[in-house]
Amino acid sequence: MVNITFDKVFNVSQLRNEGTGNLSKLVSDKCESGLFFFYAEEDSLLYIGWSNDLRGSIGGYLVGRPGNARKFYSDIYTVKILYSSSFDAFRDTYQDCNDIQFYLIDKLNPRFNVIRSLKKAYNDSEQYIDNQYKEWALMKIRMTPIEVLAHFEENGTPHPIRFNLDGKELKIEQVLSMTEEKLVGNRMLCFRCQSEINGELRPFEIKFELGTCKWFLYKI
């Protein structure tokens, strides 16, 4: 059993009675990153998501955006939040945890999360077989330069928010993981993401070249 000390908990009826403008008060009055948890009225877990902009993402899910939210948004009763600033304390307790989102998806088994049991969830990844990597393996390599809107931490780490694909601006619904790789001395950050594309939630990978500050759509 995993025990989580949530930073925020609120009932969705507060928003439906008073309007989604209250999200700033209930979530944050600034752009905050972290995990959000949606629960049904009987306290069953519907979905766990990650966002660089919790306020914006939660507001979208509560009205059925992106596409996968249409399956459960009307059943959301309670929203719980774990800010990214609390992740280190969680890892101190659960030291086998690597990627917190996937770790909790595997442990808590929310009803509407599609990608489960990824190797990156655990530090001892050999203990867990990743059947869901098949979906990623089917993607085609493009390595196409793209324009990305991102915000940067003080240490220079980028967090992508939106990008342009084939003339359309798309919101990055979830950053599933971030890894660093080095090819022939060239350091790059690789982001595994999901966005709603043509009405479907699709996985893709984008890369950020640290030396040139250029973004690339690597796989989709």
Radius of gyration: 17 Å
Biggest sheet, strands in spatial order? 5-12-11-10-9
- Per CATH, the architecture of the largest domain is 3-Layer(aba) Sandwich
Give, in order, the helices and strands: EHHEEHEHHHEEEEEEEE
CATH topology of the largest domain: GIY-YIG endonuclease
CATH superfamily of the largest domain: GIY-YIG endonuclease
Features:
6 helices, 12 strands, about 220 residues, 2 domains, alpha+beta, single chain, four-stranded antiparallel sheet, about 20% helix, GIY-YIG endonuclease
Brief characterization of the structure:
By secondary structure, this protein is of the alpha+beta class. The protein has 6 helices and 12 strands. The chain folds into 2 domains: 8-131, 3-Layer(aba) Sandwich (GIY-YIG endonuclease); 139-219, no CATH class.
Give a written overview of the molecule:
By secondary structure, the protein is an alpha+beta fold. The protein has two domains: 8-131, GIY-YIG endonuclease (3-Layer(aba) Sandwich); 139-219, no CATH class. The chain has helices spanning 12-18, 23-26, 54-61, 87-93, 100-108, 133-137, and strands spanning 8-11, 34-39, 45-51, 78-83, 141-146, 148-152, 158-165, 168-171, 174-183, 186-197, 200-209, 214-219. The strands form three sheets. It has a five-stranded antiparallel beta sheet, with no helix packed on it.
